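To the structural biology subgroup,

Please find below the input and predicted structure for NAD kinase, which we are adding to the shared reference set this quarter. The sequence is reproduced verbatim from the submission form. If anyone notices a discrepancy with their own records, reply to this email rather than editing the shared folder directly, so we keep one authoritative version.
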Amino acid sequence: MSFGKALSFNKGLIILLKSFKNALDKLFVIGILKEMLTFLFFCKTSISLPEKFLKTIEDFQITLKKVEELSAEEKPLGILVLGGDGTLLKAVPYAYQFDLPVIGVNMGKFGFLTEITLEELALALEKFLEGKVFLEERRLLKVTYEDKEEVVLNEGAILKGPFGKSITLNLKIDGEDFIEVYGDGLIVSTPTGSTAYNISAGGPVVHPKVRAFIITPICSFKINHRPFVIPEESILEVRLKEGEGEVHLLLDGRTNWFIEKEKRIIFTTAERPLKIVSSPTKSYFQILKEKFSW
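Predicted structure (tokenized):
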């Protein structure tokens, strides 16, 4: 069942449930509804589930399941994240694999991606189940290195190792030699990730609806090397030309690959975007202003 059809079906069941006066009939429909209202659940490990959260989940009769508890036949309605941005980033590969929308509830320190507060959760779930919620489509990067491939929401960062030796990276865009970056590394970011590592390295804030990638050198020895933006349909190829010791490719802060000289790292747009349930009460610009104290 597609996401849209599932939402319509759930809404119909809720209306149908209200019309039943017979207890047995109502229990039968509740059984179907509970089976349909299954969410894949990701939670920050260091927190206890708040009473308000548990009460909201109970009120909506939602079943929460971890990845390992999900059977091959099950198709969750979405992914529910309780935590901060790091917790949401862990859910991204599964959201992409199963093509599921993500509801991020902020219980972290910063929480820019997890837009929804505990107080907003009930309203967000109500609108979500009625099919009235606004789903933001966030572009994803597909990163390929040798036989490995992964999608990221924020960025892929190529970083020098712990010995402190600068590295030289060769960049090609659409097969054309572009520049060599000599310094501490390079960040390739999505617009969503522009407010993460990219902004700390001096890169620009780019609205998530802009179809582009941001390339930001990290502490380049050439002071005229500045962050720049390329169209999202571009194919970016990066090779490590010079570098001693370990050189890392860090993906969304959760996956770390060691890279070798002259082996290609390819950055392209993923086949489909990530769908995130936006805050029902705040706009992107309100959240941006609030989180960065502008």
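Summary notes: The radius of gyration is 22 Å. The longest helix spans residues 3-19.

Regards,
Lab coordination
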